[in-house]
Amino acid sequence: MGHWRNLLSDRRGNVAVIFAVAAIPLLMGLGVAVDYGRTVVTRSRLADSIDAAVLAIGSQPAMSDADAKTAITKWVNAQVNGAAIGSWQVDSVTQTGGTIHVTASGSVPTTLASLVGVKTLPVVVSTEAVRQAKKIELALVLDNTGSMAGSKLSSLITAANSLVDTLAKGTKQADDLRVALVPFSMTVKVGASYKTATWMDTQALSPVHSEIFDKTGVNRFSLFEKMGVAWGGCVESRPMPYDVQDTLPSASNPSTYYVPYFAPDEPDTKSGNSAVYPNSYLADVTTSTNWKTQETYSAKYTKNFTKTGTNSSTGYTYGPNSGCGLAPLMRLTNNTTSIKSAISAMTAVGDTNIPIGLAWGWNTLAPAGPFGDGVAYTDTEHSKIVVLMTDGQNQNSNPGGSNSNASYYSSIGYIWQNRLGITSGSDTTRRTAMDSRLSTLCTNMKAKGIQIYTVRVEVTTGSSTVLKNCASSPDMFYDVQDSSQLLATFQSIAGEISKLRISK
């Protein structure tokens, strides 16, 4: 009897039994904890990838929600390739008013938790990104010189239009984005509709009006009328120092006025050398044999053109509008359809004068001046931005031979007019003088708070220093080796301008 009593009172094995029974829920809890931890890590990894993908598509051309969903899916797949994140999918992408909202979900297979029937744990990710809050005033200052003809100009048109689309996609209201276009070559075409604008010198007060004629007070607009030729709408560079300033045109200082571009009739061809003076379109009615007297004689401008059509060596039409065949600029507008139409209408003609293009880019953004369309420089709600693109270096070419002008006519006149601070010199000397004007112009614009992106395309000679220094920062200069890369370059710039930030 005592034996059975002792046996029943012996509890030495109970610890093992109790532990065995208790181990089951402990292991279950541990398994769930381990699997939950894996799920948290997986959700974090997926969320980071989704955030990065959303920011990445912000630098892409405008796309539909469906295309954005596809792009985000591909981007995340590439980033998490090989990572154990289970199954996942992008459930929705919604783009409204500059905000991109993305939801994604998936599941993570369990390990220990599967022993108690929990095969997967759910993962849900939601993120939202918004574009920068500032409104944008953007001037596209684009090289339309003759060297841009063909595939380069086509690539530029595609790239510029995609930039506009990308920026427009991220705007909440129409006025959040206004864009201006300034095609440039050796001049800029403001358009003939500005003939009587208050900032145009209709009275021949500026000294630029008569520099190429035999007497002062010659009015270029009057000469156009005498010949029965419409002014083409192109303008001259203002004389130094106003060529690189935003000084307002004023009657008290006539040099600040803008003067119509007028390519003078050059001396008649002598000895059958048609390349010597490429823009001879009137008879030399003076009896003088001096080339300058023949060229500057203002009384010869009548309707009696001796040549019409296009000069085969320059590609310019004969006449006072020679070299003014490029597309006109467009002032700031929130109508993206109109600006894209203007971009698509660009054409290639002429030599390269970057300063006049950039100066008119400044004019389109300025709060005063020819247009006065821009907000005040002190307005903190707006960003003023220029994208300057060129495929060449500044150029003031010498036709060579016996051409006594020693240059083609352009918005800075002839080299002998001293509009660059020099009256002669090699191509390098002339380029250096023009680069100096450009550098000063860039400095003046940046001092007003204007951000400048510069793009150099397929330039294999010379230095990129002047464009690098013109850009607001080193990473805002792009040296594009092939024009086919322009689309990607402009997409990158659009992404920088309309940067996304994760808000949720």
Q: What do these coordinates show?
A:
It is a single chain. The protein is an alpha/beta fold and 504 residues long. The chain is 32% helix and 16% strand. The protein is built from eleven helices and twelve strands. It has a six-stranded mixed beta sheet, with helices on both faces. A four-stranded antiparallel beta sheet has the order 1-2-3-12. The chain has a two-stranded antiparallel ribbon with strand order 6-7. Helix 9 (427-447) links the parallel strand 9 (382-390) and strand 10 (451-457). The longest helix has 44 residues, at 14-57. Mean pLDDT is 87; it is low at 19-23 and 271-275. This is Flp pilus assembly protein TadG. Residues 137-185 form the VWFA domain. The chain crosses the membrane at residues 15-36. It comes from Kaistia hirudinis.
Helix/strand structural class: alpha/beta
Q: What's the CATH topology name of the largest domain?
A: Rossmann fold
CATH architecture of the largest domain: 3-Layer(aba) Sandwich
Oligomer: single chain
Main beta-sheet strand count, sense and barrel state: 6 strands, mixed
Number of domains as seen in the coordinates: 2
Beta-strand content bin = 15-25%
Global morphology: elongated
Q: Helical stretch count?
A: 11
- pLDDT averaged residue by residue: 87
Per CATH, the class of the largest domain reads Alpha Beta
Specify the helix fraction band. 25-40%
Summarize the structure.
With 504 residues, this protein is of the alpha/beta class.
